[in-house]
Amino acid sequence: MNPKVSVIIPAYNTEAYIAKAIESVLEQTFTDIEVIIVDDGSSDQTVEVAKSFTDQRLKVIVNQQNLGVSAARNRALRAAQGEWVAVLDSDDWYAPERLEKLILVAEEKNADMIADDLYFIKDGATSPWSTLIQESGEHIDKIIQIDSVYFVETDVYGQAGLHLGLSKPIFKRDFLFKHGIMYDETISIAEDFCFALQCLINGARFFLVPKPYYFYRSRPISLVGQNILSRLNQCCISTTSFMQQEVVKKNSDLTYALSYNLAVFKKYLAYFQVVLPIKQGKWLTALREMRKNQSFFSVLIYRFKNIIERRIQYYLMGNKSVFHMSYNLRIKRKNIN
Question: What mean pLDDT is predicted for residues 17-42?
Fold first, then answer.
């Protein structure tokens, strides 16, 4: 008999974290589960840690080379047998009652996907510093249904908002296969956002539970260098791709929301094309880019107050975590090559 829930865990070089992730699933109050770990070519002891668990509900699949998080998730999806599919990053973990609480609401609401609030917890900390909803500025105190327009409008790069692209919904597996929805293996950023939006475009009933049951570990990563430019370019490409879908063209509100997001991505692309040469001491290059990218100035003005406040916190008040904790919600990426 197939399990009720398949929990898929893509993993890449997370030997220090994956045991906690696995334990949090195996210790769920809801026990009718399978756990599928796909190691994506790790060079550390991630596979050995995963295989040290003897629970029969756990299966470990190993990619011989690193293919990226989307490919790893797709391999897990193809192996999943559950009625529902839940995603867990290998450096995060679940509260013990997460699956029980969410599946109960999902079945009551006849949902195709359901998400909860997230706890944000800094790596090494003993307690969360905030939650996704608290940081969003939105007042959500009851279960709400999320449509595609609201999903996009509240997840704009560099701006405050709900940013449900960070959430980890549980999906009805039959819905995914009926509509042929898989993770886009051509992108390496915002893959969760794109996957969820594709579900919504295909008519998924998506509900948000304003209770945090997912612990989202925040680890320091560097966004300095050409990687941020390539990631912003990917966001532009994926947003444009969505806008070209016929079903999207028929939805004027969704088209407008996506076009706004695209404009913001392009502005930040212009901004970082100037900022990166400045940080590298390439002043002539920065001046040339500044002349080509007039959007740089509007983004600089928009960000100026925040830039100053963060530097005061860091240099004068000794808050060494301020840059780490004020990460940009849309560009942040974890446990991926």
Answer: 97
